[in-house]
Design brief:
about 140 residues; 3 domains; two-stranded antiparallel sheet; 5 helices; 2 strands
């Protein structure tokens, strides 16, 4: 079993974004609160910890993956720090399915990153609505 403190959770959460202000901190706080609520025992350890089972990776190897015939979706975020992109490419190459397709997401975020430049849009969203601003960015407005 693993145990993660609130400070560890926030550090892990924050390292996986492409630029500052990409998300509202209220979101990560809500996720943390719900994780503690789902584990009343872990919530009582010190200031509260997120407990999770250790997931074994043994048994999932090239020979097993080569026999898989079921549909299989693999998604890796552009800024994901927990999954090494090369491992996903290796898994894809090992899949037995003859008919398969691959798509690579852009290396930059497609959602606006707040007020920072160099991301999708540097203009603030209209009426504070990031969804509308993101759609406008993707359409080139």
């Amino acid at each position: 079993m693993t145990a993660q403190s609130q400070a560890d959770f926030y550090a892990n959460w924050n390292r996986q974004f492409g630029c500052p202000e990409q998300y509202d901190p209220i979101v990560s706080a809500a996720v943390w609160t719900e994780m503690l609520a789902s584990d009343p025992v872990g919530a009582t350890w010190g200031t509260g910890v997120r407990r999770a089972p250790q997931v074994p990776t043994w048994g999932v190897n090239q020979a097993v993956v080569a026999r898989m015939q079921t549909p299989f979706l693999m998604v890796v975020g552009a800024h994901d720090k927990q999954i090494v992109p090369e491992r996903i490419q290796e898994l894809y190459a090992d899949l037995a399915r003859r008919r398969k397709s691959s798509s690579t997401s852009p290396a930059r975020p497609t959602m606006p990153c707040g007020k920072r430049t160099g991301c999708c849009c540097s203009r603030p969203p209209p009426n504070g609505l990031k969804k509308e601003r993101s759609a406008a960015c993707l359409k080139g407005r």
